[in-house]
Amino acid sequence: xxxxxxxxxxxxxxxxxTYHTMGMAALTAVLGIAWTLYVSDxxxxxxxxxxxxxxxxxxxxxxxxxxxxxxxxxxxxYATGMIRTSLVTVPKRSTLLLAKAGxxxxxxxxxxxxxxxxxxxxxxxxxxDRHLAFNETLFADDLPRLFASGLSVTxxxxxxxxxxxxxxxTAGAIVSVVALLFVLPxxxxxxxxxxxxxxxxxxLPNLVPQIADQRLSSRLGDGYLPPWAALAVxxxxxxxxxxxxxxxxxxxxx
Length: 254
What we know:
β1 and β2 form a beta hairpin. Strands 1-2 form a two-stranded antiparallel sheet. By secondary structure, the chain is an all-alpha fold. The longest helix has 35 residues, at 93-127. α1 (2-13) packs across α6 and α2 (16-46) packs antiparallel against α4. It is built from eleven helices and two strands, in the order ααααααααααββα. Helix content is 77%, strand content 2%. The chain starts with a helix and ends with a helix.
């Protein structure tokens, strides 16, 4: 298993797509600085301003960028035919997929938390003592949401890996990830109550605040899962998609 992990780590860091997707995710820190400078100027003019914290507002960029990394980890091998070599080297397909999941999970967890922490700390340093809503809480109070945000990025990257193994198409898997992240939450708003709120509490973008023990508010009502339940739902997404991906990998030839 150690040799397989080393091989997968070598694959991940030897392709340019890894650095492109990581770079897109890291763009969050730059956008966060620009956003903080903009709203800080407005706060100076108006005396008080409520604004979305950059690590929350630009979280979808980190999520979708690293989800694409998860997708490409396996679909690029199907596109180039490299998957045949991988399966000859590691005939046990569960070991291969588990190794890919371990490397993708570790890489995205470290990268996501580093990007979010940098975005958080730089925005607070720039804001200083200005009257900004996102500057009024202590780091200890924000830590649960930061951790939940980083965990959501890792979960989505593993979902991308599972969907890539299932669909075997880069475009198809990315479209599926985009649907999970952006389309389904919008469609849930059009369901009749109380199903709109019940479904919304289970969707990926809405799990982060609930893991941090915050209510899910919307124009259609309030929804809430206990933190442990929201965390369990978040972990279920990659688990289910990876299981489906494994069964597809096992039953279909490369």
